[in-house]
From TrEMBL:
Gene symbol of the encoding locus: TRIM9
CDD domains according to UniProt: Bbox1_TRIM9_C-I (cd19843), Bbox2_TRIM9_C-I (cd19826), FN3 (cd00063), SPRY_PRY_TRIM67_9 (cd12889)
Span of domain COS: 374-432
Protein name: E3 ubiquitin-protein ligase TRIM9
GO molecular function, one term: ubiquitin protein ligase activity
Amino acid sequence: MEEMEEELKCPVCGSFYREPIILPCFHNICQACARNILVQTPESESPQSRRASGSGVSDYDYLDLDKMSLYSEADSGYGSYGGFASAPTTPCQKSPNGVRVFPPAMPPPATHLSPALAPVPRNSCITCPQCHRSLILDDRGLRGFPKNRVLEGVIDRYQQSKAAALKCQLCEKAPKEATVMCEQCDVFYCDPCRLRCHPPRGPLAKHRLVPPAQGRVSRRLSPRKVSTCTDHELENHSMYCVQCKMPVCYQCLEEGKHSSHEVKALGAMWKLHKSQLSQALNRLSDRAKEAKEFLVQLRNMVQQIQENSVEFEACLVAQCDALIDALNRRKAQLLGRVNKEREHKLKVVRDQISHCTVKLRQTTGLMEYCLEVIKENDPSGFLQISDALIRRVHLTEDQWGKGTLTPRMTTDFDLSLDNSPLLQSIHQLDFVQMKTSSPVPATPILQLEECCTHNNSATLSWKQPPLSTVPAEGYILELDDGNGGQFREVYVGKETMCTVDGLHFNSTYNARIKAFNKTGVSQYSKTLVLQTSEVAWFAFDPGSAHSDIIFSNDNLTVTCSSYDDRVVLGKTGFSKGIHYWEFTVDRYDNHPDPAFGVARIDVMKDVMLGKDDKAWAMYVDNNRSWFMHNNSHTNRTEGGITKGATIGVLLDLNRKTLTFFINDAQQGPIAFENVEGLFFPAVSLNRNVQVTLHTGLPVPDCYSSRASIA
């Protein structure tokens, strides 16, 4: 019952209610405290003046809060009448429970009457210390408020249930233990308070003082006071007015105050309201029970969180230790390769040392022998062997000159540890959400070890997090434009791997992935940075070539089985940047005129390159060349090709030009300008020609210097 104690204390004095009265706002207050917070109002605000003017509608009039403010909104500690310049300001205090309390405007007159019977100042006003509603008292004063007998009974039972010693009810600060109780005053006193407040003289001399324990028993056995009508003190409550929501007596009904109201028997309404309160309490009890169970659940969660954290930390340490062990094993393997490379280098160098030592010993012996021969004075004998010695010396000299004095092995280790993917994986090592509170899929994880770029293509691979409980119906892959622009969708589907072709060379792309299902989409994965190749490496494309084209050398060399020209394209298309590739003529019979250049993917494959509007080419024979596009021939230039010749094609999409080279020299002027779009390397030839493609080449120096000057 200790939780109930705050309900039993007065908001003004902070002690248990003594003779509590019920204000019209249904809050309670001690009679003595109510008298202490009375404030006198101006004459014009009195209920008599209101009734005289016809504005009064009830015995108790609530003040217009726009005209009167009994508490400071700025919390300055003062309350005042806001509508009257002559009204004095009165300092306010705070009760023990924090409620603002207003002291009386003037000291109450000395009297021995009870607070209810003592006269109150005329035109007095009282403000509820809890809801701050104000009302002006009528002539009845505090007697016009009903007494809360039920609250008194609850307080009595509560105090009787406490086993602690009874305390004095008049001590201002720390109450002392009571020594006596006055049966007439119904008050517990300690010795100092009894001598000061209840002297044994005058009318108080006839009061009976008993020990506190006996007073508790007599209070418990005393008959409960019957609630009487506030307007007719000699009449008991017998009926209940439903509209006014208050008990009334028989005389109230006779006077006609509730003539038009619905009135019911007090006992019936008592039982009805008890039933309603019991039902409301049952519902509230259910909520309290749920709250207690919830608190138990929260306390169990605290213990479970601590246990799970220990288990999770152990799992995390084990996973990190496993990664460290795997790294140590890989470290041992790499060290083994380094040791193997070192032993190989040492073996080669030692073999060369041994070989050079033997060679040097032989050379030194030959030199010493020749010197001794030179010392001989027999001309005929010298000439017999001199030719042979000269040949041996020259032969030995030649043997030393054929790379013998060049180390067969470098001291450097041509090994470089590529640890950037692993470092990136370590930096991206993070927790994934194992359980989702919503049915949206978990964020996919990009598998960095399987993501790569080749030329202008990018391959990406991803997966769902381990132990993900929400399945994904598909994935959305997004890339930016290679210049840090906005992302765009490049793949939507169920697969977990995708290759994106047709990207720009020498560009940096950002990629991200998200999953989706019927409910919605997940968060984006971490962004992956992809770098395409600076130069293009490609071969001829058998899939798009004419059927008469013959491929060899891993599709780098082509010829034809027909006497007619047939077209073959490269596998890689270009739409941005500067690109250069070459063809070498492996076979050139009967002076044919092959064509080299670029074309769209849908170019005609059974005619010479440049005959339609889908190709831009240079065709060349053994003496001269021409540029051709849409069957238009321009810029005849002297200089042809033979077996072993090299034809270069330079596609500059930054400047939108196409230029040709023969044997590292530019052939004619710039062949075509204002070329833009997607182009594929192309060549047309017949059976008299065979060419080999060379890619991944830098731009010719002559063109680079010219471009820098421009």
